[in-house]
């Protein structure tokens, strides 16, 4: 399993645990909309981090292993 997948899974598990702990309860004054907006924003950040990690790995692969077409004989 790649490091990117492990990081993403760990962050999602952490989000689930913190969401369960922070559940506003039965009181409607606790703000369910704020609760779900924070969860959505956290999911967006996790997906953005995953996208950036994959992009960084691809760029690192291009730098470490340049194309054969760039070599001139």
Description:
- The two termini are about 40 Å apart.
- The model has no long low-confidence stretch (mean pLDDT about 85).
- The protein has about 70 residues and is mainly α.
- It has helices at about 5-20, 30-65.
- Helices cover about 70% and strands about 0% of the residues.
- The relative contact order is 0.11.
- Keywords: Membrane, Transmembrane, Transmembrane helix.
- It comes from Parabacteroides chinchillae.
- This is LPXTG-motif cell wall anchor domain-containing protein.
What would the keywords be for this entry?
LPXTG-motif cell wall anchor domain-containing protein; transmembrane; membrane; 73 residues; transmembrane helix; 71% helix; mainly alpha
Average residue-wise pLDDT: 87
Give me the strand/helix succession. HH
Strand content: under 5%
Total beta strands: 0
Write down the overall geometry.
Answer: elongated
Question: For the terminal residues, how far apart are their CA atoms?
Answer: 39 Å
Put simply, the count of helices is 2
Structural class: mainly alpha
Gyration radius, in Å: 20 Å
Could you describe the largest sheet, including whether it forms a barrel?
none
Low-confidence stretches: none
The helix content is: over 70%
Summarize, please.
The protein has 73 residues and is mostly helical. The chain has helices at residues 3-21, 32-64.
Write the layout of secondary structure elements.
Elements: H1 3-21, H2 32-64
């Amino acid at each position: 399993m790649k490091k990117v997948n492990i990081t993403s899974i760990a962050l999602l598990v952490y989000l689930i645990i913190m969401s369960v702990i922070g559940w506003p309860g039965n009181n409607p004054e606790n703000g369910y909309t704020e609760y779900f907006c924070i969860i959505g924003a956290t999911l967006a950040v996790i997906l953005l981090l995953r996208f950036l990690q994959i992009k960084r790995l691809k760029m690192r692969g291009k730098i470490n292993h340049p194309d054969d077409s760039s070599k001139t004989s």
